[in-house]
Amino acid sequence: MSTGAQALLRTLLDAGVDTCFTNPGTSEMHFVAALDGAPDMRAVLTLFEGVATGAADGYARMAGKPAATLLHLGCGLGNGLANLHNARKGKTPVVNIVGDHATTHARYDAPLQSDIETVARNVSTWVRTAQSAETLSRDAAEAVAAAVGPPGSVATLIVPADVSWNTGAQPCQSLPLAAAPPADGKAIEAAAGALRQRGKAAILLGGRALREPALMAAARIAAATGAKLLAEVFPARMERGAGLPAPERIAYLAELASVQLAGLDCLLLVDAKAPVSFFAYPGKKSYLAPKGCRVIELVSPAQDAAGTLDQLASLLDAPGAPGKLLQPPAQPDLPEGRLTADKVCQAIGALLPENAIISDEAQTSGVTLPAFTAGAPRHDLLTLTGGAIGQGLPVAIGAALACPQRKVFALAGDGSAMYTIQALWTMARERLDIIVIVFNNRAYAILNMELERTGSGQPGPAARAQMDLANPAIDFVALGQGMGVRSARAETCDQFIQALQDAIDSPGPHLIETVVPNAFTGFKLKALPHALDALKILPGPLARAIKRKIAP
Amino acid sequence: MSTGAQALLRTLLDAGVDTCFTNPGTSEMHFVAALDGAPDMRAVLTLFEGVATGAADGYARMAGKPAATLLHLGCGLGNGLANLHNARKGKTPVVNIVGDHATTHARYDAPLQSDIETVARNVSTWVRTAQSAETLSRDAAEAVAAAVGPPGSVATLIVPADVSWNTGAQPCQSLPLAAAPPADGKAIEAAAGALRQRGKAAILLGGRALREPALMAAARIAAATGAKLLAEVFPARMERGAGLPAPERIAYLAELASVQLAGLDCLLLVDAKAPVSFFAYPGKKSYLAPKGCRVIELVSPAQDAAGTLDQLASLLDAPGAPGKLLQPPAQPDLPEGRLTADKVCQAIGALLPENAIISDEAQTSGVTLPAFTAGAPRHDLLTLTGGAIGQGLPVAIGAALACPQRKVFALAGDGSAMYTIQALWTMARERLDIIVIVFNNRAYAILNMELERTGSGQPGPAARAQMDLANPAIDFVALGQGMGVRSARAETCDQFIQALQDAIDSPGPHLIETVVPNAFTGFKLKALPHALDALKILPGPLARAIKRKIAP
After folding, report:
1. If pLDDT is split at 50, 70 and 90, which confidence band does B456 have?
2. Contact A368/A542 with Cβ under 8 angstroms?
3. What is the ipTM of this complex?
4. Cβ contact (<8 Å) for A111 and B104?
5. Nearest to A496 by CA among A331, A340, A333, A332
6. I want to staple B369 with a disulfide (CB 3.0 to 4.6 A). Which of A204, B257, B345, B483 is the partner?
7. pLDDT value of position B529
8. What pLDDT is stored for residue A453 in this prediction?
9. Do the chains contact at A26 and B450, CB–CB below 8 Å?
10. With an 8 Å Cβ cutoff, are B388 and A422 in contact?
């Protein structure tokens, strides 16, 4: 006779959910106890719930199936909320198992009592509180199916302690999963008509349209029609590098994105939203497609991007291969001299091994990374889908567990790394092949820039102090070593190159703290084109395209 | 002509809110820019929102007035949720200022868009999204009044970016604050009647009833009637030590609490709830007052505990002073030899300076702290009001800012310290007089105990791994130094005593990592009375009372 928790674990495993990122408490002790009877479940302990939820997100992006989390009541779920927000925005499937007080205990309003469903609803498309051990397994099977979608989403199953510990439970078979259908024929015909018209057209690819099959079909369409290929600002997972089509990613800065989109007559959305500014700014527009540009949603996130694009390519008599639209191999030279954020990106581009995964949360310091890695060996890029920082290191954990044969690079700013710095401990504990690269510019550098963009005026010492992380400077080597990760500091290009090569050559987690200047001190918008002119040193058609746009 | 943000800051200052714990983003840049025009506002930067909200909680517990937080949209608020839960449960006033997208931008569902009000409602009694710069100041004045109560609570004001940056705003005068009334005369008479009856009575003190005025009145009542004085399990702030009445705190373990409450005929609640088990356990009761015990709520959290108890004392012709019910001075000897968690507590009891503040989140290792500090010089004890760990270090930050002349001790387990370890950086940045003592037993020790209590069976290696923090062991000295805090490790009593004395004697933050055995490995409930028999070495009437209860 199984307990609810035992049947729950068996049900998750039957549905293919075999990895669980945990931070349990008393209400989850029966789930924990049941782990010994479910050796196929890999339970990965984290020291903070934001690490668990971010890792589940990274895992699903790379594994193509959800992981579970195990969280302790409403407060544990709350701690995991920011990274669940990122998963929600990236349409990544996650199955949260959240323990709750026993059903008989809730009425006493004990200290940890809170309204879990309300917190869960903020990020979940599916929320349920299990009512009995007998029905718990069915709930779990439905949670997995809801998470898988399509589109992927966050499903949260709240499990009262007595539902876990009561007996009489049976595992539930996994439910049939729905396949994503292609867009309907009329929509595809309409898209073909739009692309055939005179005028400048672009196809904006997002979500699953940034994986190889859809990318190849889109590039064939581009070859046939001259349409430009764009990628959304923050893809959950983008397959890129030598041999793949290289859509131009819309810039984070609306000022640049407007340049990228200028002159378009038609914008076809494929698992992507119409481009909008990340934030609003006084007197600036939020919606970025130019006036008069026709915006057509061809493929929704619940539809099959690759299948639809294949049909569209056939309808357009597109060539069988995209030919010269494939990115040729090209890696930058190794940088020299004093280290800067750009040179860190350049060195990564020069040394990136085959089949790497990059989790990129270096929002300002990593700005030249896409260009420097454009012609690098093929790799996956995972970005900050929902804008809630503290995602980069946890996502790397999940990606490394999903793809144990691949090197994972986790790029973070000093500010962003600190939100979920506890991730380092789990990397060490699980001996994950992750290279954490922290750009320590001792500032919330992005805020230097945003302060100027919001027109808040010249900052005085009180305002500047809110962006200053130099007092005290954070010693990331100490933090890494304190959590069991081999760590090194680089202040010159030589030091960085050596540390990076060493990390690439030896297994297990590494941290490299790069001490770099804050490129955005005294940032001025009018200096932007000049600053981005640095891009002319970069290889590949993407760089040329960007250069044409920003320095016309 | 003021911007909304400028008027907001002025309104907060006029209402006495002059400390703000921040982690801003782009939507809060106009608030940040306005700081230079409001030099009386102390803006304390944190690296993680849970530090900001916990610090605001600790500040208000000691300052007796709220601090503000400055948080970035729904995800920033989400990161702060666990410590706001603790503030909510402790009835501590907090004013959250949460930035949001500009009102014109919300419709575009940009990446950071989320339903902030829903997240806020989970912890707040008052939630409002400001609609215009003109009305923002009035909103802020109402938020402060709502937070102050009585009872204290969390108020969340959501400020869209354009409401901050628009001009035409005027500061708003602070609103009159309601005074807490005493309980009505009939309720006081009924309580007097109950205490005069034959039978065993106790007065359970919580909330503001654990401050000196109410404690003294309660002790006079106890002296007159023989009623026993109890304190709630997790007080927000308890004034204690030599010269004050020493109510016996209800134990976290329901098994012990039941012993403490056994035989009671009447339980008078003063700003406290009827005792319940922290969690539910199979086959064990949640409600802990014994059968037949009359439970009377005399003072609600919205009422005046001290005034009511004074009236009750008069009605009972209580003596003017509690006499021998005051705790006599008594400090333990310094411990010797190998360090254990109990010896750490003993040394703290021996060396505690006058007028200290203790933020206690050492849930298992700190179990003997209350007894060892019972007769120490007068101090304030701040505990884990809502059970959401990760509170102890942030609360210490707020307490140190509220009381810059007092030494603050922050006690944490290795597990609990890691939830908001970023707090160390703010301690260093603000040069706060905080002594962080981490009990590093390399385990979630409380879960070893809870696994046994929940009857989940004998744990195997997979279950045990979920409580094991030894692989890798966390080096808290490295973490402290990495964030700029002077740090030392102690493995013997001598080392700990020397490090503690050094920390007491020199200003600024210190961290002492104590390497102690996990007292709860292989924990067995039946061994509890034996384990707690150690209490017989402790001084004071509290220890004698506890000993009588647990080893009858």
Report:
1. confident
2. no
3. 0.95
4. no
5. A340
6. B345
7. 56
8. 84
9. yes
10. no
State the pLDDT confidence band at B223, using cuts at 50, 70 and 90: very high
Please name the residue that has the structure tokens 């919580």: B206
pLDDT tens profile A278-288: 999 998 999 99
Q: Above 80 in pLDDT, residue B546?
A: no
Q: How many CA atoms does the CB half-sphere of A255 hold within 13 Å?
A: 16
Residue B494 pLDDT exceeds 90: yes
Cβ of B440 under 8 Å from any chain A Cβ?
no
Give how far the C-alpha of residue B245 lies from the chain's centroid of Cα atoms, to the nearest Å: 20
Q: Quote the DSSP letter at residue B471.
A: T
Contact indicator for B53, B422 with CB cutoff of 8 Å: no
Q: Between chain A and chain B, how many beta carbons pairs sit less than 8 Å apart? A: 314
Nearest to B292 by CA among B272, B268, B263, B270: B263
Model-wide pTM > 0.90: yes
Query: Is A269 within 8 Å of A542 (Cβ atoms)?
Result: no
Helix, strand, coil percent values for chain A (each to nearest 5): 45, 20, 40
From chain B, the residues in CB contact with A390 under 8 A are 48, 79
pLDDT given at position B522? 57
pLDDT the model gives residue A545? 47
pLDDT digits (tens, 9 = 90+) for B394-413: 999 999 999 999 999 999 99
Strand pairing partners for A2? A169
Angstroms from B412 CA to nearest CA on chain A: 14
For residue A57, the cross-strand partners are none
Among B111, B114, B479, select the one facing A479 at the smallest CB separation.
B479
Residue carrying the six token digits 């009647």: B193
Q: Which residues pair with A297 in a beta bridge?
A: A269
Is the pLDDT score of B538 beyond 70? Answer: no
Task: Read off the tokens for A213.
Answer: 């099959």
pLDDT over 50 at B552, yes or no: no
- The pLDDT, as a whole number, for residue A551 is 40
Residue B446: which pLDDT band, with cuts at 50, 70 and 90? Answer: confident
Q: Which of residues 367-406 of A touch B (CB under 8 A)?
A: 384-388, 390
| Contacts with B478 from chain A: Cβ below 8 Å | 478-479, 481-482
| DSSP code string of B26-59 | GGGHHHHHHGGG-TTSEEEE-SSHHHHHHHHHHH
A374 and A542 Cβ atoms separated by less than 8 Å: yes
Cα–Cα distance measured from residue B211 to residue B235, given in angstroms and rounded to the nearest whole number: 10
Does B79 sit within 8 Å of A81, measured CB to CB?
Answer: yes
What pLDDT, on the 0 to 100 scale, is given for residue B458?
85
Question: What string of DSSP letters covers B148-183?
Answer: HSSSP-EEEEEEEHHHHH-EEE---PPPPPPPPPPP
The more confidently predicted of residues B540 and B24 is: B24
| Residue B159: count of CB within 10 angstroms of its CB | 26
- What are A332-337's contacts with CB under 8 Å, separation 24+? A332/A372, A332/A537, A332/A538, A332/A539, A334/A493, A334/A497, A335/A493, A335/A497, A336/A493, A336/A494, A337/A492, A337/A493
Q: Please count the CA atoms within 13 angstroms of the CA of A493 that sit on its side-chain side.
A: 15
Residue A357: in which H helix or E strand, if any?
A: strand A356-361
Q: Which of B74, B80, B67 is nearest to B143 (CA)?
A: B67
* Ranges of chain A whose pLDDT falls below 70: 520-552
The per-residue DSSP string of B60-115 comes to: HHHHSSPPEEEEEHHHHHHHTHHHHHHHHHHT--EEEEEEE--TTTGGG--TT---
Q: Do B466 and A112 touch (CB under 8 A)?
A: no
**How far is it, in rounded angstroms, from Cα B153 to Cα B95?**
9
- Among B residues 277-336, those touching chain A with beta carbons less than 8 Å apart: 277-280, 282, 286-287
Strand order in the sheet with B228-231: B248-249, B228-231, B201-205, B266-270, B294-299
Helix (H) or strand (E) holding A55: helix A49-63
Q: Give the burial string for B18-56 (b: 16+ CB within 10 Å, else e).
A: bbbbbbbbbbbbbbbbbbbbbeebebbbbbbbbbbbbbb
